[in-house]
Amino acid sequence: MGMRAALGVMLVATLAACEPVGMTGPGQPAVRLMGDVVVAAPDGYCVDPVVTRPQTGFALLAACAAMDPDGDGSFPDDVALITVQVGAAGSAAVAGQEDAFRAFLETPQGAALLSASAIGGPVAVRGTQANTNAVAVYTQDAGPPGVAGTQSTSWRLFTDVKGRLVTVSVRGLEQTPLSQDGSLDLVLQVLGLLRGANGGTATAT
Question: Angle at Cα 153 formed by Cα 87 and Cα 177, nearest 5°?
Fold first, then answer.
């Protein structure tokens, strides 16, 4: 199965895991989610206009080429499924509490919380990082991934934007797996774009 076909199958599986919707259409470069939080896609990625739910603060980003099976667009060097979830007003919990947030994620209780919010079920925490208004955690699925054909490992990053907790996750593909560093680089790209589009100035390294 080629890359374009494989990505198409995985996009459909992701849609099914989230809610029953139709096939994806042409992607968009950015979307405005609830709370006026703007999410922009990295180079080679687009916002899926069908599964993305601005009113609930959820966006799915995937390779633009995968959303246009009849096109001839090229895939980005690092291919993954990226999700962004914006929390409720007043849910901000990272800025000024980065070390405490990171420490919590390293506890059994933190792992249980991550597992409860992960497609596919329980996860094990393999590493964490913290920087100004950003805490990232690297996890590995304890069982089969929730979306067939994806890697068992993923980075998830938490940051505050406009008073809301925003979660970014990056999961590579089994066919073209991402290294831990490559996956982290992609999640940090999304973080930088979030900050650029929403008036943020701090950066995470």
Answer: 120
